[in-house]
C-alpha cells in the first residue's frame, strides 16, 4: 500500500533489508528473514525479531524507497503487509511497475534532484488521497456515485480531504420566499449546501458546533421543512425525498459533533463515534438502532448490537406465537413485540444452557429452542438466516461460558487488630457487608404498619405468585401489560428487592461479577477524596426520619455502597441525590444488590445524569418541556415560560420523586421506574401537571406555581399509610405554603400512576431517544453560552476592549481550537490539554481550561489579528513564536483566552509606551533565544510578574547587540505597505543612529573605568520598573559589548513624530475581527488547496 513519505537513513537499513530491484530514484527491498529459501543466520535473527514484536511494531516484508542519487537519505513510499505475503508481493510489484512506467521517465526532466523528490512525494500523497476516497466510497451502497459526489464536495467547498463526507440529499434551501434547488452535504464536522441555478451560485458551510437548534416546521409555502438555527441566523430546507431520514441524520451528526467537541470528557460516547473518520451513514443507522435497543431493554452501555431479525416467540400465557423482532448483543437475547411494550423478553446468555435448531415444518418454519438454567425453554420461529444466527449465538455462548467459569466466592471481613472495643465495633460496622435488606431489621418500627397493610401485602404477594406461574420468574419472564398493572399497584415489600434486581437486570451483573463489590469496598475504605468528603457530609441527610438511618448499621452500609461506587466510577464519583437513591435501595435489597442497582441506575437507566454538569437530567428537562407543549397545550398556552415548571421537575428526575413524595408513595414510583425506565417519570410528571393544570394556569408567579405542585405531591398517599409522613424537602416547602392557594384533595399514588399510563402510556422509548438527541444540542449550546459569558466576565475587568469586540474575539479563539480538532491535530500541546482536563488542573479554573491554543493555533490567530503588517511571513512567524512564549508563563505550551485577550488589549487599547514595552520584551529572554528554531530554550527565571500578560514586567534589562539588531529588524518589517512608509524608514534610521550613539557612549564610559557610575545610572533609569538592572545579563556584558535599556529606546523613539503617530494611530479592531472571521477558515484551508493543486498538476510548470 502507498504510505505518506517517511524519511529513513539508508546506511543503517542495509543490514536488515535486501535490495531486490533498483534504479536511479527507487529501490524495492525485502526484509531479511522473509521469503528466503534457506535459513541463513541473519535472516533467522531478523525474522525472529519481527515475530516477537507487538503487532503495532512489526515491520512489513516489502517496501519501496524513494532516493536521491548520492545521498544516504531515503523515503519509504510504499510497503506490503505482513499477514498476506503472496498477495502483498503482487501489490508491491504493482506499485513498482506504476512508478517505473508513470514517473521514472518524467523525473529525468528535473535539473534539481530535490525538485524531483518533491514531485514524487506529491504524487504519492495524491495516490493516498485517491485510495481514501475509494475506501470511503466502497463503504456506501453505490460506490461510483458516491465517489462522484465526494469529488464535487471537495471541489465546491475546498475542505481538507480528512473532512469525511457522510451522506448527501437533494433539497431546496429557502431564502425568503424563493427556493433554491441544490444539494445538502453532511460531513463529520459541517453541513454544506450548494446550488447553481440560472447562472447564480449559492453555497455556504455551517459547522455543527454552531448549530443551536433543529426543528421540523410547516408554513404556507413549505409543506414541511427542516429549520437549522445558529447563533447568527436560521436556514430552512425542504423538498427532501425522505425528510424523516434526513432530519434524523442531521440530528445525529450535530449531536455527535457537539458531544465530541464541547464535552468529550463529560458525556458517554460510543467508541466508534469517537473516531469520526469511521462514521458512515450505515454506522449512524446502526448506532441509532443500538441506542434504541440499549434504552428499551436497559442494557449495559458497552453492549454491541450484532443481529436484528424478525421472528415470532411462543408465549405460553397467550397460547400463541407473538410476532416481533429479535435483537442479539454481546451478552443478551432480546425480543420485543411489534407494538412496543406489549411483550418484552430478555434472556442473558449467562442463563442459557443451549441454543438448538429444530426440524422445520409448515406450522413451525425455521424454529430454534433456547434452553435456560431454570429448566425452561423458549421457542422462536420464522427466523431468516437461521443457521448463521445459531452459529453466531453458540460461538458467543461458548466464549461467555469460558470467560465466566465459576470461581469460589467468599464473604470477607476485616480483622482490625485494635484493642479498643469501640474502634473494633466501628470497623466491623464499616466493613462487614450486610446480607439482608435493612427493611428486614427495621420493618417493625416503620410508622403506619397495621393489620390492614399486612393483609394488603399478602394479597399482592398472591397476585405476584400467580403471575410468576403464568409468565415466569426471573430476568427472562415475559413482561406484558399485566405486569404493568401489578407494578402500578405497588410491589409487595417481600418481593421488592428481587423484582428490582430482575426488572433492571442488575442480577445478571451481580452473578457475572462475584466478589467485585467486596473488593471495591476493601479498596475504597480508608481513602480520602473530594467524593468521600461529600459522602460523609450527606450520610445523615439520607432519609433521616427512617429508623434504618438513625442507626450506625444503616449509615455504615450507605457509606460502603457510595464509596465503593465512587471508587468504581471516578468519572462520576459522587453526586447529590445519589445518597437518597442508595438509601432506598438498601432498605429493600441486600447491600451487594443495592450496589449493583445503583450501578444500573447511574450507568444504564439514567445515562449522563450524574456527570460533572448533570447534562442528562437537563436534557430530559428540555424534553419534558416539549412534551408539555405537545400533550398539555392548554397549560403551555397559559404558562408560556415553561422553564419554571422544568426547574421544579428537575428534582423529580434526579431523585425519582423520592425527595418530593411521601416515602411509601415515592417507593411505588421507583417500582415503575425499574419496570419502564425514564418513561415512567415522564408519564407521572405529565399526570401531576395535568391534575393541577387549572391551578397552575391561574397562578400569578413562579412561587405560587411551586407551592401548588408541592402541596399536591405532599398529599399523594398510598395504601400502606393513609396519612403518610412528608419527605423532608416536601415538609419544608409545605410549611410555608400560601393560604390563598386552592386546596387540592388527597390523591392515591396507585390512581395517579394508573392515570399516567392511561393518558400518556403511548409515549415510546423510540420517541424519547429521538427527542433526547435533538434536545441535547440545545442543552450543550446553552452550557456553551454560559461558559462564554463567564469567561468574558472574568476577562472584561482586565482589558479595555469593548464587550462586543471581546465576545467576537472569544468566538475566533474557540473556532481556532475547533478547526484543529476537526482535521486531526495530534500535536503534543493538544495531548497536554487533554491531560490537563483528565487530571483536573487545579491551578486553573474551569473557564480558563475550557479552550486553550497551542503554538500553531496561536500563530494562525496572530496572523489574523496582529494590527501591524509584517515585512515577510518568516519574520511574522518569528514574532508570533516569541509572543506565544511570552504569554505561556507556566510553560505548558498552551495559551488561555485571558492571556490572549490581554495581549490583544495591549496592541489595540494601551498607550504608546506599553506597546513599545511589549515590543521590547519580545527581543529579550525568555521570548528571544539563541536558536529561534528551538522554543524550548525560551524559558528564563529572571523575569516574573503578577500581571497575567506580563506587560508590566520589569523592563530595565539591557539589550545585547544581537537583541538590538532583532529589535530594529522588527521595526523595519512593521512599516511595509504603510502610506507613510518612506518617512517611517527615515525616522527609524535616525532613531537607530541615536541609540547607537547612546550605546557607544555608555560602552566608552564602562571601558574607561566608570563601571559603578554606569550601574547607578542604569538603576536610576529603571527605578520606575522596580528592578535592579544588574540582574540582567546586559549589566554583566563583556567589555567588547555595549548595551541600551528600554528607557533609552523609548526616549529615542519619542524624538520622531512619525513614529509616535504610527504607534498612537488607532486601529479599527472591529474591522480586523470582521476580516478575520472571513479569512479564518480560508487561511487554514489555503495550504490544503495548494496541496490539492500540487497533487493534481504536479510542479512541472516550474520547469517549462
TrEMBL record:
**Where is each EF-hand domain found?**
875-910
Organism, scientific name: Sander lucioperca
Q: Where are the transmembrane segments?
A: none
As one GO molecular function, the record gives: GTPase activator activity
Localization per Swiss-Prot or TrEMBL: Cytoplasm, Cytosol
The protein depicted here goes by the name TBC1 domain family member 8B
Per the UniProt entry, the signal peptide is: none
Q: What is its main location?
A: cytoplasm
The Rab-GAP TBC domain is annotated at 490-677
Swiss-Prot/TrEMBL keywords: Calcium, Cytoplasm, GTPase activation, Metal-binding, Repeat
Q: Name one GO cellular component term.
A: cytosol
GO BP terms in the entry: glomerular filtration
What lineage is this protein's organism placed in? Eukaryota, Metazoa, Chordata, Craniata, Vertebrata
Residue stretches of biased makeup (Low complexity): 718-733
| Protein origin, superkingdom | Eukaryota
Question: InterPro entries in the record, alphabetically?
Answer: EF-hand-dom_pair, EF_Hand_1_Ca_BS, EF_hand_dom, GRAM, PH-like_dom_sf, Rab-GAP-TBC_dom, Rab-GAP_TBC_sf
Q: Where is this region: Disordered?
A: 717-741, 1002-1033
One Pfam family assigned to this protein is RabGAP-TBC
Amino acid at each position: 500500500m502507498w504510505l505518506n513519505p517517511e524519511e529513513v537513513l539508508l546506511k543503517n537499513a542495509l543490514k536488515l533489508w535486501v535490495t531486490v530491484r533498483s534504479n536511479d530514484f527507487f529501490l524495492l527491498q525485502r526484509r531479511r528473514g522473509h521469503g528466503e529459501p534457506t535459513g541463513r543466520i541473519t535472516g533467522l535473527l531478523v525474522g525472529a525479531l519481527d515475530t516477537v514484536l507487538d503487532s503495532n511494531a512489526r515491520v512489513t516484508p516489502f517496501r519501496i524507497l524513494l532516493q536521491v542519487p548520492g545521498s544516504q537519505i531515503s523515503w519509504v513510499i510504499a510497503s506490503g503487509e505482513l499477514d498476506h505475503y503472496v498477495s502483498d508481493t503482487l501489490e508491491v510489484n504493482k506499485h513498482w511497475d506504476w512508478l517505473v512506467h508513470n514517473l521514472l521517465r518524467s523525473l529525468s526532466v528535473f535539473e534539481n534532484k530535490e525538485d524531483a523528490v518533491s514531485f514524487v512525494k506529491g504524487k504519492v500523497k495524491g495516490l493516498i488521497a485517491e485510495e481514501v476516497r475509494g475506501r470511503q466510497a466502497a463503504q456506501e451502497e453505490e460506490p461510483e456515485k458516491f465517489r462522484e459526489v465526494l469529488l464535487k464536495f471537495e471541489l465546491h467547498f475546498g475542505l481538507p480531504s480528512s473532512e469525511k463526507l457522510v451522506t448527501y440529499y437533494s433539497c431546496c434551501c429557502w431564502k425568503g420566499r424563493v427556493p433554491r434547488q441544490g444539494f445538502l452535504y453532511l460531513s463529520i464536522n459541517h453541513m454544506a449546501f450548494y446550488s447553481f441555478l440560472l447562472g447564480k451560485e449559492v453555497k455556504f458551510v455551517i459547522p455543527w458546533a454552531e448549530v443551536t437548534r433543529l426543528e421540523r416546521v410547516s408554513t404556507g409555502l413549505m409543506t414541511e421543512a427542516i429549520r437549522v438555527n445558529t447563533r447568527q441566523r436560521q436556514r430552512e430546507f425542504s423538498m427532501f425525498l425522505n425528510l424523516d431520514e434526513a432530519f434524523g441524520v442531521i440530528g445525529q451528526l450535530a449531536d455527535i459533533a457537539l458531544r465530541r467537541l464541547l464535552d468529550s470528557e463529560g458525556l458517554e460516547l460510543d467508541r466508534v463515534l469517537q473516531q469520526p473518520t469511521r462514521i458512515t451513514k450505515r454506522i449512524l443507522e446502526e448506532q441509532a438502532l443500538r441506542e434504541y435497543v440499549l434504552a428499551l431493554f436497559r442494557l449495559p452501555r458497552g453492549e454491541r448490537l450484532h443481529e436484528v431479525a424478525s421472528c415470532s416467540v411462543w408465549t405460553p400465557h397467550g397460547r400463541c406465537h407473538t410476532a416481533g423482532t429479535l435483537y442479539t448483543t454481546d451478552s443478551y437475547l432480546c425480543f420485543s413485540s411489534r407494538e412496543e411494550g406489549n411483550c418484552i423478553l430478555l434472556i442473558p446468555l449467562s442463563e442459557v444452557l443451549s441454543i438448538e435448531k429444530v426440524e422445520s415444518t409448515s406450522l413451525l418454519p425455521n424454529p430454534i429452542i433456547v434452553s435456560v438454567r431454570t429448566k425452561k425453554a423458549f421457542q422462536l420461529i420464522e427466523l431468516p438466516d437461521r443457521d448463521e444466527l445459531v452459529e453466531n449465538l453458540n460461538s458467543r455462548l461458548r466464549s461467555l461460558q469460558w470467560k465466566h467459569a465459576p470461581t469460589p466466592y467468599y464473604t470477607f471481613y476485616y480483622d482490625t487488630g485494635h484493642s479498643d472495643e469501640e474502634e473494633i465495633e466501628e470497623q466491623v460496622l464499616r466493613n462487614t457487608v450486610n446480607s439482608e435488606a435493612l427493611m428486614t431489621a427495621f420493618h417493625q418500627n416503620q410508622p403506619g404498619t397495621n393489620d390492614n397493610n399486612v393483609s394488603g401485602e399478602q394479597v399482592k404477594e398472591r397476585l405476584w405468585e400467580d403471575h410468576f406461574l403464568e409468565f415466569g420468574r426471573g430476568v427472562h419472564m415475559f413482561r406484558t401489560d399485566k405486569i404493568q398493572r401489578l407494578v402500578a399497584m405497588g410491589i409487595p415489600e417481600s418481593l421488592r428487592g428481587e423484582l428490582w434486581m430482575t426488572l433492571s437486570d442488575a442480577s445478571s451483573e451481580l452473578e457475572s461479577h462475584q466478589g467485585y463489590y467486596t473488593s471495591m469496598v476493601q479498596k475504597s475504605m480508608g481513602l480520602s477524596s473530594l467524593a468521600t468528603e461529600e459522602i460523609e457530609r450527606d450520610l445523615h441527610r439520607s432519609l433521616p426520619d427512617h429508623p434504618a438511618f438513625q442507626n450506625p448499621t444503616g449509615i455504615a452500609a450507605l457509606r460502603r455502597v457510595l464509596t465503593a461506587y465512587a471508587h468504581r466510577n471516578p468519572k462520576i464519583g459522587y453526586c447529590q441525590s445519589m445518597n437518597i437513591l442508595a438509601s432506598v435501595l438498601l432498605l429493600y435489597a441486600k447491600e451487594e444488590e443495592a450496589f449493583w442497582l445503583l450501578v444500573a441506575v447511574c450507568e444504564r437507566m439514567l445515562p449522563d445524569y450524574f456527570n460533572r454538569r448533570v447534562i442528562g437530567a437537563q436534557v430530559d428537562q428540555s424534553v419534558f418541556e416539549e412534551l408539555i407543549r405537545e400533550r398539555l397545550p392548554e397549560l403551555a398556552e397559559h404558562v408560556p415560560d415553561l422553564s419554571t415548571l422544568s426547574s421544579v421537575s428537575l428534582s423529580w428526575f434526579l431523585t425519582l420523586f423520592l425527595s418530593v413524595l411521601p416515602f411509601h408513595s415515592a417507593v411505588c414510583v421507583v417500582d415503575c421506574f425499574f419496570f419502564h425506565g425514564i418513561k415512567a417519570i415522564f408519564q407521572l410528571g405529565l399526570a401531576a401537571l395535568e391534575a393541577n393544570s387549572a391551578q397552575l394556569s391561574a397562578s400569578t408567579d413562579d412561587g405560587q406555581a411551586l407551592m401548588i405542585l408541592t402541596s399536591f405531591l405532599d398529599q399523594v398517599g398510598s395504601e400502606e399509610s393513609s396519612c403518610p409522613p412528608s419527605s423532608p424537602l416536601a415538609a419544608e416547602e409545605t410549611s410555608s405554603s400560601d393560604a390563598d392557594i386552592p386546596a387540592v384533595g388527597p390523591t392515591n399514588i396507585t390512581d395517579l400512576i394508573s392515570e399516567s399510563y392511561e393518558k400518556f402510556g403511548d409515549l415510546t422509548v423510540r420517541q424519547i431517544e429521538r427527542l433526547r438527541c435533538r434536545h441535547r444540542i440545545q442543552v450543550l449550546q446553552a452550557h456553551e453560552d454560559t461558559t462564554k459569558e463567564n469567561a468574558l466576565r472574568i476577562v472584561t475587568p482586565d482589558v479595555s476592549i469593548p464587550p462586543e469586540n471581546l465576545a467576537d474575539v472569544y468566538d475566533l479563539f474557540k473556532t481556532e481550537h475547533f478547526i484543529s480538532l476537526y482535521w486531526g491535530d495530534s500535536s503534543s500541546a493538544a495531548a497536554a490539554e487533554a491531560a490537563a482536563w483528565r487530571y483536573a488542573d487545579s491551578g486553573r479554573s474551569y473557564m480558563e481550561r475550557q479552550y486553550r491554543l497551542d503554538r500553531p493555533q496561536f500563530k494562525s490567530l496572530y496572523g489574523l489579528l496582529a494590527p501591524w503588517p509584517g515585512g515577510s511571513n518568516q519574520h511574522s512567524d518569528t514574532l508570533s513564536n516569541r509572543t506565544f512564549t511570552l504569554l505561556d508563563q507556566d510553560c505548558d505550551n498552551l495559551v488561555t483566552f485571558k492571556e490572549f485577550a490581554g495581549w490583544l488589549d495591549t496592541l489595540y487599547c494601551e498607550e504608546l509606551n506599553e506597546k513599545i514595552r511589549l515590543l521590547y520584551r519580545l527581543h529579550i529572554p525568555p521570548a528571544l533565544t539563541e536558536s529561534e528554531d528551538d522554543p524550548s530554550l525560551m524559558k528564563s527565571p529572571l523575569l516574573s510578574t503578577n500581571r497575567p500578560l506580563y506587560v508590566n514586567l520589569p523592563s530595565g534589562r539591557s539589550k545585547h547587540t544581537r537583541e538590538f539588531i532583532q529589535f530594529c529588524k522588527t521595526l523595519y518589517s512593521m512599516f511595509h505597505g504603510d502610506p507613510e512608509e518612506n518617512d517611517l524608514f527615515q525616522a527609524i534610521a535616525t532613531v537607530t543612529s541615536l541609540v547607537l550613539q547612546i550605546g557607544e557612549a555608555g560602552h566608552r564610559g564602562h571601558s574607561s573605568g566608570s563601571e559603578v557610575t554606569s550601574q547607578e545610572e542604569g538603576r536610576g533609569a529603571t527605578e520606575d520598573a522596580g528592578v535592579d538592572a544588574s540582574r540582567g545579563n546586559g549589566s554583566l556584558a563583556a567589555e567588547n559589548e555595549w548595551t541600551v535599556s528600554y528607557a533609552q529606546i523609548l526616549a529615542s523613539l519619542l524624538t520622531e513624530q512619525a513614529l509616535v503617530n504610527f504607534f498612537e494611530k488607532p486601529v479599527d479592531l472591529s474591522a480586523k475581527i470582521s476580516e478575520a472571521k472571513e479569512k479564518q477558515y480560508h487561511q487554514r484551508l489555503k495550504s490544503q488547496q495548494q496541496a490539492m493543486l500540487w497533487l493534481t498538476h504536479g510542479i512541472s510548470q516550474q520547469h517549462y
